């Protein structure tokens, strides 16, 4: 498996629940390394830009409202197969369908407030990392 990087966001609901540490522990126990991180209260423009691929979807407006409802914790995770590994740790988008033991099963309350974001492929990972971090802010640990 290749060494990859992926963008992860701990969304406002999980930050409000004080669950950053528990979620970070899951990343680290799965062998993912946090190579960059920042806490941020996204502006409307930042959230709309980040989720631009969904702009025509009916859930776009509530998604943006939710993402700007409080601070988020944004990190770059690095590791073997990091993109899929993080998606597996997160579980299904709808927490009702998320497998037991996944982050969304344990911390999310609804499909809208679903605790975490993770890039869904190599191209989106690259673009999403660049959306929030300059190359010089990454501390690769291989
Ligand atoms: P994310 O991008 O946040 O990691 O989540 P995902 O890949 O599992 O889901 P995606 O299809 O990319 O959708 C982005 C976010 O939009 C909200 N959503 N709501 N009401 C709905 O049918 C619906 N579908 C998606 C979710 O909060 C999802 O995380
Ligand atoms: Mg997605």
From TrEMBL:
Gene Ontology molecular function terms on file: ATP binding; metal ion binding; nucleoside diphosphate kinase activity
Annotated CDD domains: NDPk_I (cd04413)
Record flagged with keyword Lipid metabolism: no
Keywords: ATP-binding, Cytoplasm, Kinase, Magnesium, Metal-binding, Nucleotide metabolism, Nucleotide-binding, Phosphoprotein, Transferase
Localization per record: Cytoplasm
Known catalytic reactions: a 2'-deoxyribonucleoside 5'-diphosphate + ATP = a 2'-deoxyribonucleoside 5'-triphosphate + ADP; a ribonucleoside 5'-diphosphate + ATP = a ribonucleoside 5'-triphosphate + ADP
Cited InterPro entries: NDK-like_dom (IPR034907), NDK-like_dom_sf (IPR036850), Nucleoside_diP_kinase (IPR001564)
Ranges that cross the membrane: none
Gene3D superfamilies reported for this sequence: Nucleoside diphosphate kinase-like domain
Nucleoside diphosphate kinase-like domain residues: 3-140
GO biological process entries: CTP biosynthetic process; GTP biosynthetic process; UTP biosynthetic process
UniProt-annotated catalytic positions: 117 (pros-phosphohistidine intermediate)
EC code(s) of this entry: 2.7.4.6
GO cellular component terms, A-Z: cytoplasm
Superkingdom as given in the UniProt entry: Bacteria
SUPFAM superfamilies linked to this entry: Nucleoside diphosphate kinase, NDK
List of residues binding ATP: 11, 59, 87, 93, 104, 114
Any matching Pfam family: NDK
Names of the cofactor(s): Mg(2+)
Subunit (UniProt): Homotetramer.
NCBIfam families xref list: PRK00668.1
Reported function: Major role in the synthesis of nucleoside triphosphates other than ATP. The ATP gamma phosphate is transferred to the NDP beta phosphate via a ping-pong mechanism, using a phosphorylated active-site intermediate.
Family, similarity comment: Belongs to the NDK family.
Name recorded for this polypeptide: Nucleoside diphosphate kinase
Source organism of the structure: Mizugakiibacter sediminis
Taxonomic classification: Bacteria, Pseudomonadati, Pseudomonadota, Gammaproteobacteria, Lysobacterales
């Amino acid at each position: 498996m290749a060494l990859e990087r992926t963008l992860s966001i701990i969304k406002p609901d999980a930050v409000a629940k004080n669950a950053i540490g528990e979620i970070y522990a899951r990343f680290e126990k799965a062998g993912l390394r946090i190579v960059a991180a920042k806490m941020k209260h996204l502006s409307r423009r930042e959230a709309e830009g980040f989720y631009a691929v969904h702009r025509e979807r009916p859930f776009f407006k509530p998604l943006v409202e939710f993402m700007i409802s409080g601070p988020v914790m944004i990190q770059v995770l690095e590791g073997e197969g990091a993109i899929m590994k993080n998606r597996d740790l997160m579980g299904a988008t709808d927490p009702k369908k998320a497998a037991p033991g996944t982050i969304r099963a344990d911390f999310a309350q609804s499909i809208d407030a679903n605790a975490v974001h993770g890039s869904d492929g190599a191209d989106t990972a690259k673009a999403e990392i660049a959306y929030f971090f300059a190359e010089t802010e990454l501390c690769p640990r291989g």
